[in-house]
Amino acid sequence: MTTPKEENILHILGNKILPGTSTTINFNIAKLYTSTKVEIPIIIERSKKKGPTVLITAGIHGDEINGVEVVRQIIAKQINKPAKGSIICIPVLNVFGFLSLNRFFPDGRDLNRVFPGTKNGSLASRFAYQFINEILPVADFCLDFHTGGASRFNAPHIRVDPKNENLVAVAKIFNAPFTLFSKNLEGSYRAACAKKGKDVLLFEGGKSQSSSKEIAREGVQGTMRILQYLGMLHQQFEVSPSERNTIIIKKSTWVRAKCSGLLHIKVAIGKHVDKGEILATITDPYGKMRHIVKATNMGYIINVNEAPIVYQGDAIFHITKELVDE
Fold first, then answer.
1. What is the pLDDT of residues 33-71, one digit of tens each?
2. For the chain, how many helices (H) and strands (E)?
């Protein structure tokens, strides 16, 4: 029989973390070819006061630096020291990919497509299994930070399953510039959380192998709003009042390149455009061809392909198509 004091102990990877303590646990997941251990630091801050446990993660894809920077700032500024409850920060989940600035695990798998994993599967699958069974169970609420893939720059936004009304309401509290209704993909961390009954907000912003101060600021400010809402943010931290409310997106569409060539972007990320507005031009290297890319519909630009060269059929712009009426 457990005593009330024992009930307030966090059990993670065989460790007992007491209330009012600061702890870093090294999650040993595998070894390099050289037999060098690969460990993931799990940074835990606990208040003496009872409260929820918030799990904050980034770096599921090793090349998504913006997300790592958001969690780093949360730790460096000591925002992760809760007024009540516990905050668990894991800035880099995919250390293998982070070392080589690669999206994938060494086995070639996308970690965000193998959850909840298997005990005896591939390296990525084994890691996902350990994470879901050893770390996720202690969390009451999760925040996961991502960026756009390759050269595609995402406007800062939250992705949320529209079926989860409670989570939609919490996304409004985070108050990113945009909130995108998005179903949970099979094998994703979000889907695994949903199946375990854990609420999770997924933040997207910026592009891979790049760091943006504006994106990091949106991620940190949104996290502070969530912690304030949960009563976990210390009073010395001030949440900047926002002059805007998050724009909720129900549907969106991609504008694709109709020809190959050099891409010249003419609009800024997050801009509201009209149908037919010029978004970019595509030229050949020889000054003979110039193709104008126009908006297919009215909406906000929530993703821009910042690659200098594109091929026919490449996605260039992601434009909102249908907003949710408030």
1. 777 788 899 999 999 999 999 999 999 999 999 999 999
2. 7, 18
pTM above threshold 0.85: yes
H or E, element range at 41: strand 37-46
> 311: how many CB neighbours lie within 10 A of its CB?
11
SS3 content of the chain, % helix, strand, coil (to 5): 25, 35, 45
The length of the chain in residues reads 326
> Long-range CB contacts (< 8 A, 24+ apart) of 116-119?
116/192, 116/195
Handedness of CA 3, 4, 6, 12 (dihedral sign): positive
One DSSP character per residue, 89-124 reads EES-S-HHHHHHT-SS-TTS--GGGSTT--TTS-HH
290-294: strand order across its sheet = 290-294, 278-283, 261-265, 309-310
Structure tokens at 180: 């995108």
For residue 271, give the nearest of 241, 289, 247, 287 by alpha carbon: 247
67-102 confidence digits (pLDDT tens):
999 999 999 999 999 999 999 999 999 999 998 899
